[in-house]
Amino acid sequence: MKGSRDMADRPPLSGWSPGLDGDVALRDAYAGMPGDPALAIPWYVRALENPASPLALPGAIDLFGHDCIHIVLGRGMLPQDEAFVIGVTMGASGTLTRWQEVLYQWCSRLVYRGPYHLTGFDCRVFALAADFGRRSGIRPLHQVAWADWQDRSVAEVRAHVGLTVDALLGAFDRERALRPDTPAARRLPHGGAVQRR
């Protein structure tokens, strides 16, 4: 369970990235993921991103599901990675409107604090990812029964949601073209660097 390990045993948030290895079981990838318990998430994030909130935006999902999406999308925990994960999740919901996209970007820049705060560039990544989520034809990620897929490989989970490594690499290339010098962009895999599972 997230938050039950000592802080000294957890890898730093900024250094963790699951990559696009499809052979690892989702359960094992999740066990190696750093993070905080759901109670540590600020109220303003929970207001927009928790499905139990009356103000929840499209694609709202619990923390466990959100963490699984990080793994399936091959993204770490930097703000740019968060922007990508949230953008794809909202875009894939099938119900995200332009005003909701603008509202999320406004809140993430002006209301969110600490590691939840997004810069203007992060918001560009969010918009790119939301468009990818809309156009890619993947399942609404917030509706996947993530607990049922824990013993399957990440490659099997990607196939279940309709996501391919090639599609992700294309999205990463578009993101990297915006600004290749960020820490998140520098660790994004390139086409020849991963097995296509």
Give the percentage of residues in beta strands. under 5%
Task: State the helicity in percent bands.
Answer: 40-55%
Which sheet architecture does the biggest sheet show? none
What's the Cα radius of gyration?
15 Å
Q: Uncertain runs with pLDDT below 50, 5 residues or more?
A: 1-8
Task: State the order of secondary-structure elements, H for helix, E for strand.
Answer: HHHHHHHHH
What does the average pLDDT come to? 90
**Helical stretch tally:** 9
Number of strands: 0
Shape: globular
Distance between the termini: 28 Å
* Helix/sheet category: mainly alpha
Describe the 3D structure.
The protein is mainly α. The chain is built from nine helices and no strands. It has helices at residues 26-31, 43-49, 63-73, 79-92, 98-110, 120-135, 154-161, 165-178, 183-187. Helix 3 packs across helix 4 (79-92), helix 5 packs antiparallel against helix 6 and helix 6 runs antiparallel to helix 8. The protein starts with 25 loop residues before the first helix and ends in a 10-residue tail after the last helix. The relative contact order is 0.17.
Helix-strand blueprint:
Blueprint: H1 26-31, H2 43-49, H3 63-73, H4 79-92, H5 98-110, H6 120-135, H7 154-161, H8 165-178, H9 183-187
Keywords:
single chain; 197 residues; mainly alpha; globular; disordered N terminus
Please outline what is shown here.
The protein is mainly alpha-helical and about 200 residues long.
